Amino acid sequence: MSSSIYDHFLFFRESLDDYHDRREKLIKASRDITNISKKTIFLLHRLALEAKDASARISASQAGLKKLHEVQKMYADMKDDLVGDQFWRYQRQVSPGLQEYIEALSFAHFLENGKLVTYEQVQATLCGADGVAYFPLTISDYLLGVSDLTGELMRFAISGFGKPGGRSRALETCNFVRNCKSDFESFTPHVWELHKKQAVTAQSLSKIEDAAYTAVVRTSEYDLPPEMLDDIVNQTVLSYNRNDRKIERGDDNGEEFNEPFH
Amino acid sequence: MDPQTFENLNQMLDHESNIREKIREQVNEFDKKTRTVVGILSKIHSTHSESIPSLIETARPVLHSCSETIADLVSLIPPNQFWRWKDMWCNSLRTAVFAAALSEYLTKGTLISLESTSNMLGIQEKWKDRVHLAVEDYLHGLITMVNELSRLAVNAVILGDFEQPLKISAFVKELFSGFSVLNLKNDTLRRRFDSLKYDMKKIEEVVYDVSLRKLVSKDSPVKPTSSE
């Protein structure tokens, strides 16, 4: 091999190796970020479900945001690999984790403010102390990330349905998700992956709508404020639980149940 | 979403699709030119080797004119966004690399370097963050050239030129060992690299046929193709 061709290819090897190494590194980081973000979402669900009032929801949100600092630190570490035009080279590797992070962030934001986190607010969390962005946030990552929020809100609304105030919250959430869906609709021609997300959002929305429907129909039967209805339901649940425990302790009932198996 | 945010996002998205539209127009232009060049170069298969240099000369002006389209392209790309848009034109660019490399080999018998290819297409160093010739695209262009040369080896024999296959064989072997230096991942470059061995096999068979039948005169000088 003539030395010049060899030298050229050695240079190409270096450049390709460098690219592959960075790519791998960013894929790993992106996976870790996805992981932390998913855990944060679970954490938020747990805390939000236990939360009895707005201030408890705010502290749930704070706990989630605190966990997301880990992610922000990881992005700070990644910024050197994503400097200048390099971000666009690795955008496909970075974007899955980023979308998951935005989903978690938007959920925390919703719990605290009842609003959709804005594009600028997300970008602001991805800036160093000097205010310089680690990398430019793409609109498609932002939209795809917040679009996943609707699925979380569906879970939030349905699982909190039986809790005090859950019904009115389901109605609020229903409106919020409906607005999201109609806002995102006009973006879909520009961001093609959004089509699929919109379909999922539509599913989530119809689940919340069903729940909200139930809420309205049932409360309409009683001319009582919703808090009192909650109390009635709660008392029934409590007394049922007490009876239930008595039954568990009782001797005859248990044996009756076991009979078919003997 | 409040109306202002909504409006901002929509404007940003509109701006992006405007850029995309304009790039697409230029890429179409670029594509037309590279297709014309490839059309001219495809005549090498039916041209005697002594007329090939003049055939290549007719392709050169079109190839050079690609630099105008590339300059127009550069003016559309926002700073630092080379990698964002490059997929849109990389096929045309790879074809241009192929044409440049094939022309260089058929006129000088040497491998064109990445820098010379870049210069030939009028790509300037200062455009680095908007348009440059990436290693990957250059290598893709070279592989296309080898694919073409394996056909040329066969067709040269049809035209009665028995030396061409031997020259091609030496050149391609050298290029192949260059590619063997690379650590390729399982991507398109890797798959295309894998295709090289079939080209090598085809060329070897032609060399075998012409040598065995003593169609090449012993004293015909087959020099190592790379003169550097």
Automatic annotation (TrEMBL), chain A:
It holds the Pfam family Translin. Keywords: Cytoplasm, Nucleus. InterPro entries: Translin_C, Translin_fam, Translin_N, Translin_sf. It comes from the Eukaryota. It is found in: Cytoplasm; Nucleus. Belongs to the translin family. This is Translin. It comes from Lentinula boryana. The lineage of its organism: Eukaryota, Fungi, Dikarya, Basidiomycota, Agaricomycotina.
Automatic annotation (TrEMBL), chain B:
Transmembrane segments: none annotated. InterPro entries: Translin (IPR033956), Translin_C (IPR016069), Translin_fam (IPR002848), Translin_N (IPR016068), Translin_sf (IPR036081). Gene3D superfamilies: Translin, domain 1 (1.20.58.190), Translin, domain 2 (1.20.58.200). SUPFAM superfamilies: Translin (SSF74784). Keywords: Cytoplasm, DNA-binding, Nucleus, RNA-binding. It is found in: Cytoplasm; Nucleus. Belongs to the translin family. This is Translin. It comes from Lentinula boryana. The lineage of its organism: Eukaryota, Fungi, Dikarya, Basidiomycota, Agaricomycotina.
